[in-house]
Design brief:
The protein has 179 residues and is mainly alpha-helical. The protein is 85% helix and 0% strand. The chain contains five helices and no strands. α1 runs antiparallel to α5 (169-178) and α2 (30-71) packs antiparallel against α3. It is rod-shaped.
Length: 179
């Protein structure tokens, strides 16, 4: 009916006004979640690259070891050159393995950060959903409580500039729509 459309329009308008009062995205926002996902993906790519570099370094180490064993059957000059190549290959393989360990640690840290952001954002959105459910309860106190709970969930999800949402004039405006 026309009344339902008007109520929905008023409700959506009130949510938009709440968002504009609450401020720019920050904290446990969808934007932060997206950034954390990107950081995690980048760290996985870096780990895969480090593993590929490690594999190449190990191949070179194996080849240098074989060359050194062959050089032992030859003269001192060949042995010295092969020994130097072998030592360089060992250092490179060790560095590559250390890099893999470092990247694995970064991936673990980024995964933990991503999980924390997602968990906190879900909690905030659950607050919004619960608050909106209270709005539909029909009582003025339930509506007010719902607005406060939804606003608190939104402030954590999209950031806030006002320290006390109860002092935001939009709350009274929303209550007048519900009545």
């Amino acid at each position: 009916t026309n009344t339902n459309v008007e109520a929905q329009t008023a409700f959506l308008s009130s949510i938009e006004k709440m968002e504009s009062i609450l401020g720019e995205p920050g904290g446990n926002s969808f934007k932060k979640l997206g950034q954390d996902v990107q950081i995690y993906q980048d760290s996985l790519r870096a780990l895969n690259e480090a593993k590929a570099e490690e594999a190449v370094a190990i191949e070179k180490l194996v080849k240098a070891q074989e060359d050194y064993e062959q050089a032992l059957k030859k003269g001192q000059a060949e042995q010295d050159a092969a020994k130097e190549t072998l030592n360089t290959a060992k250092r490179n393989a060790d560095e590559a393995s250390n890099h893999v360990q470092e990247q694995t640690s970064v991936v673990t840290q980024n995964n933990q950060s991503l999980s924390e952001t997602a968990t906190n954002l879900k909690k905030n959105m659950d607050n919004v959903v619960q608050g909106l459910s209270k709005l539909s309860s029909g009582s003025l106190s339930g509506a007010y409580s719902g607005i406060i709970q939804a606003s608190n969930g939104m402030k954590d999800a999209i950031g806030k500039t006002s320290e006390n949402l109860r002092e935001v004039p939009i709350i009274g405006w929303i209550l007048s729509i519900i009545d």
